[in-house]
Amino acid sequence: MVQVRAGAYDCDVLVVGGGIVGLSTAYAITRAAPGKRVTVLEKEPGPARHQTGRNSGVIHSGIYYRPGSLKARYAVRGAAEMVKFCAEYGIAHAVTGKLIVATEREELPRLHALVQRGRENGIPVRELGPAQIGEYEPEVRGLAAIHVGTTGVCDFVGVTRQLARASGAEIRYGARVVRVDRRPERGVAVLTASGDVVRARVLVNCAGLYCDEVARLTGDEPEVRIVPFRGEYYELARPELVRGLVYPVPDPAFPFLGVHLTRGIDGGVHIGPNAVPALAREGYGWGVVRPRELAGTVAWPGSWAIARRHWRYGAGELHRSVSKGAFLRAVRRLLPAAEAGDLVRAPAGVRAQAVLRDGTLVDDFLIREGARAVHVLNAPSPAATASLPIGREVGRRVLEMLAAAG
Ligand SMILES: Cc1cc2nc3c(=O)[nH]c(=O)nc-3n(C[C@H](O)[C@H](O)[C@H](O)COP(=O)(O)OP(=O)(O)OC[C@H]3O[C@@H](n4cnc5c(N)ncnc54)[C@H](O)[C@@H]3O)c2cc1C
């Protein structure tokens, strides 16, 4: 059994997870408190192998989120900071702006509500009629749209690597945390799958798709479970059909933005992601099934509540997942020129969505504290955009905890 002994620490802060949130946290701590020793344990052979390396690469403006929420505050601030960070370190990025396009009459009130929300969040938006949509995107059709100028794209993997370098933290790859011994009066000791033991004063849990499990390893009950939702993508074989970023009006019942068209920093255009249940937390295709993880999802009452509440929407998403024709029909609402041959399968991502026992999809970022531990329990989109402010907030809590521990 791994045990904590007083005074014998390998580091001050141990971060579990080498995605963009874990490494932003390490970076924030060493910036705010030079001299603090931070160790990051990441189970993969390199950084950003899961959500951070499998997303749309969009620097979100913050237009969608409830004013005053962490998502709104951190996305608006984080987008500006992300652009600055990329510029400072020479990481590929571009502030392209984006269109949100209504294709059905019933979406018009929701589009208008987004204009209001954008203004409340301090984001300048321009309202467009059908003819003006063509000025930005000649091949896109819609009844009305808004243009958001502060949205951009960047290389989040490059950002994460730079955060790792600039943090000065010791980063151990291939180090999967399998056990935690936490003594409130002493600190934490973790055991990795390869048998290493690392002792620290405070643990930070940024384990993404496994954050609820890591929280439980410490002895804290997170009161949420991660329900993995896969997002599947196609690549557009004729990228010249899309100049920038084109989004539908999102369904407010879901924290997902709907299938969008995204020209990335490499010039390719991605179409997606949809949202289908994944059969494993890192289940990037229907063929990946992990019975233990699936059983855990099925045993959580919230999963059934989601299925009951959202079966109709879910059935549509499943249909579009297995039928390219159905996916194409959805894409054609925005981009009528798209043809079946234009859609080429691309790698998928899986979102770590926290779900309460009653089936509520946790909407805002969720950071909880236990004794000697800070847990990031919900950091879905736009957490890559917002990672610098999230890291600072987690870092602030950690430093307070260290000060209190003496
Ligand atoms: C399909 C998709 C599209 C998205 N699009 C965008 C977008 O355009 N813009 C945006 O801002 N956000 C987007 N997001 C959200 C964004 O990618 C995430 O919010 C962000 O990457 C979360 O970072 P993270 O560090 O919390 O998680 P992760 O990147 O998943 O990192 C967690 C890390 O913890 C490690 N880990 C887990 N368990 C252990 C363990 N026991 N021991 C050691 N290591 C462990 C994992 O290997 C992993 O590397 C998208 C997400 C998805 C899935």
Automatic annotation (TrEMBL):
GO cellular component labels: cytoplasm
Span of domain FAD dependent oxidoreductase: 12-395
InterPro entries, per the entry: FAD-dep_OxRdtase, FAD/NAD-bd_sf
Domain of life: Bacteria
Cofactors required: FAD
SUPFAM superfamilies: FAD/NAD(P)-binding domain
Keywords (A to Z) from UniProt: FAD, Flavoprotein, Oxidoreductase
Gene Ontology MF term list: (S)-2-hydroxyglutarate dehydrogenase activity
Stated family: Belongs to the L2HGDH family.
Record-given protein name: Hydroxyglutarate oxidase
Species the sequence originates in: Streptomyces capoamus
